[in-house]
Amino acid sequence: MQAPAVADKLHELGLDIARLHSDARQAIDAEHARMCSEGYYDVTDVAIRLFVWYVVDSGRFDARCLTKPGTISRSIFTMRQWASSDPARAAAIEIEITALKIFLLRAFESVRAPRHAILAAEDRLLGA
Questions:
Q1: S-S: 2 plus which of 6, 75, 82, 125, CB 3.0-4.6 Å?
Q2: Which domain of life is it from (predicted)?
Q3: Which has the closest alpha carbon to 16: 48, 76, 63, 79?
Q4: DSSP letter assigned to residue 61
């Protein structure tokens, strides 16, 4: 079970853990335990890594568990804001942000929308 502070940070990033199915919640709890056993203790770092892991790597991502449409893009802004005072953290955060951008770019490939709308969305994402 995540610490309340981690759950609060996940919510700030846009993940509503109360909406998660039990298997996804158990997977996040297991990933959190694994991270702690490897020495990840900073609440912000843990929350960012768990958010990116859930969206990109877990295979359990469900957009209905996000707090609102556009959450992933807003999470990029939030992560950068959290890291703005620490250049070392900012560099690490950019790696996580890149993973989110790649995930979204791949998602755009399967969206049924006019090509110009997809290209505009990709341009905005790449500029983020």
A1: 6
A2: Bacteria
A3: 63
A4: -
